[in-house]
Amino acid sequence: MIDAPPQDNGQDWLVDDTATGCGTPAQATPWRVLIVDDEPDVHKVTRLSLRDIHYKNRPLELLHAYSGAEGFHLLRAHPDTALVLLDVVMESDHAGLLLVRRIREELNNHLVRIVLRTGQPGQAPEQEVILGYDINDYKAKTELSAQRLFTTVIASLRAYESLLSIERSRQGLSQILDGSSNLYQQHSLREFASGVLGLVGAVLDVGTQGILCLREDARSAPQVLGATGRFSDLEQQAQLDPKNPLYPQIQAAFKHRASQHQPSHEVLYIPTQASHEFALYFTPPRPLTEVDKGLLEVFCSRISAAFDNLNHHLQMERAQEATVVALADLAEYRDNDTGEHVLRVRHWTDRTARRLAELGHYTDELTPRFLDLVGMASILHDVGKVATPDDVLFKPGQHDAEQQEVMRQHALIGASILERAAQMVPGQSYLSLGAEIARGHHEHFDGQGYPDGLKGTAIPLAARIVSVVDVCDALLHKRPYKEPWPLEQALDFIRQHSGSQFDPLVVQAFLDVMEQEYTSYSQEPKP
């Protein structure tokens, strides 16, 4: 029942047994109530009338201001204030009404409940004030007995709580929609896990400490994908240790295929169409409301959809990679001497492109997508050699003019093969970049290369990078027509042809990479 001031007006139906004068746990967050009045006695009487009152096991915290200006500063400092008990006449005849406008318009605070209290009703007629100002109640000070004040405060807190729940729901849904859209762009399960753990805190508008586990099927152990806060150390584990105290709680979610709501923690169960299951364990710093739980149900469905999208994307990426590797293997199948060549080209192409980005060059072209693709795409640079006759491809020594012309055809053949395949994949892909590289990696920066005689930045950037990498690796390793060169000699060749055969900015980035790859020019490259 209610422990409140004696009831004198028969309006106790407005208050239920969630409002009480009994004690409450010290850690309960109080409801902030701001009293704005220039009469100290009004503050004293109000404080006495509201002493020991609690609503939903939360006490009141009274803030005091003695002018409209002081009230404005307190509200700006405490935007979570639930209720303002506001006098009309203070430093001016309409100071209270001016403060109402400033609260709604300057602070843009439409949640706080405002109850006007006036000792001079004729100064601010009730009907005009109710219609002209965004207030929630209007009371003459003479009619506010202790009981009526109690009823007004509790009714205002209940309205504030309802509006706050709606606002949190709106913000939570917005966070879910925005955050889950970002999850679709993640490149790995680890990134996905980090995004999920961050998003749950944003949805609930609280910081969270948690762990996200994945189970691929009913027989597999939970894999730890990500962890935050005091659980961060668990992120280093591939699988959750059965001896860990969290293990039975997470397993319960998997076993029952349902979220587990406990006073001390939450375990969200998230199934997916891909037959994977997630369990998200976290410890919210406050008890979850029904609104919170409803948001989490929406959250789970969005996370499931985001994972299915990511899984599909990763499968598509793997399929593309498998196609690229198969094409590269086909080209290298006939030439065992260059079997490791494409792997080195991939490594150095990737590193050189990233070094170019670090140096701030070609920022429009060195997009995250380009950087993800160019290394793998580079292994297709010589795929056109599949059509080169053996007597030309494996001839020791230099080619004559006719053989040289046949050899040069591999650039156009490779580009043609890859361009046709790339048409089946929308946007930039391994195949589209591979086609640019296959066609352009023998072009020269000064326009003296082949097959198109392109010059400068008219040559695709991916091809300009692979041009440097491919030549250097060919110089460093034995070929049917030459012995390997010492590293210092090969790098000198690259330097000497900077600006003529090679893009000078690419050369700069490549030499930076090589300096990091080798501790000295006489040493073999690091694995």
Alpha-carbon Rg, integer: 36 Å
- Give the topology string: H per helix, E per strand: EEHEEHEHEHEHHEEHEEEHHHHHHHHH
Q: Uncertain runs with pLDDT below 50, 5 residues or more?
A: 1-26, 520-527
Structural class: alpha/beta
Q: What is the highest CATH level, the class of the largest domain?
A: Mainly Alpha
Helix content: 40-55%
3D shape: elongated
Give me the number of helical elements.
16
Give the termini separation.
75 Å
What is the subunit organization of this protein?
Answer: single chain
DSSP summary, beta strand count: 12
Strand content: 5-15%
- Integer count of domains: 3
Going across the biggest sheet, name each strand in turn.
1-3-4-2-5-6-7
What do the pLDDT scores average to?
81
Supply the CATH superfamily name of the largest domain. Hypothetical protein af1432
**Biggest sheet details:** 7 strands, mixed
The CATH topology of the largest domain is what? Hypothetical protein af1432
CATH architecture of the largest domain: Orthogonal Bundle
Structural commentary:
It is a single chain. The chain folds into three domains: 12-166, Rossmann fold; 184-309, Beta-Lactamase (2-Layer Sandwich), CATH 3.30.450.40; 333-517, Hypothetical protein af1432, CATH 1.10.3210. Strand 8 and strand 9 (223-227) form a beta hairpin. The strands form two sheets. It has a seven-stranded mixed beta sheet with strand order 1-3-4-2-5-6-7, with helices on both faces. Strands 9-8-12-11-10 form a five-stranded antiparallel beta sheet, sandwiched between helices. It has helices at residues 40-49, 68-77, 95-106, 126-132, 146-183, 189-204, 247-256, 290-332, 341-358, 368-378, 390-393, 401-422, 430-440, 461-476, 487-496, 504-517; strands spanning 19-20, 31-36, 54-55, 58-65, 83-87, 113-118, 137-140, 210-215, 223-227, 260-261, 266-271, 277-282. The protein is built from 16 helices and twelve strands. The N and C termini lie far apart (75 Å). Pfam families: DUF3369, HD_5, Response_reg. The modification 4-aspartylphosphate is found at residue 87.
